[in-house]
Amino acid sequence: MSFAHKLQYAGSKPYQHERSLVDDELTYHEYEQLIQDETYVRLAQLRWLAYELESSLAGDNGVPHETKDEIFRAVDGSDAHLSTAVDAYVDEFVSNLHVDEEANQ
Questions:
Q1: In Å, what is the CA distance from 104 to each residue of 29, 34, 92?
Q2: Phi, psi (5° rounding) for residue 65?
Q3: So what's the pLDDT on residue 51?
């Protein structure tokens, strides 16, 4: 299955990390606003696709080890940064959401 198809049928998987934060760190209202934000959606999908790439390559014996090593080096180095970037974006988004709500009261 191509990555385009994986993403098409991923459902809530790309947003699973933030979804798991609901009730502990995010309200359901904040989460609903977040998943309507196009930038967040793209960042979360990119984070998930990097994870899927690592997973699918790990089990693919047709890819030469040298190629896997280079891809893992590139993706693994980016994976943590992607997660950090998404977390930072979510924090800023929620903070701005609260500022906007306070200004409207």
A1: 16, 19, 18
A2: -60, -35
A3: 83
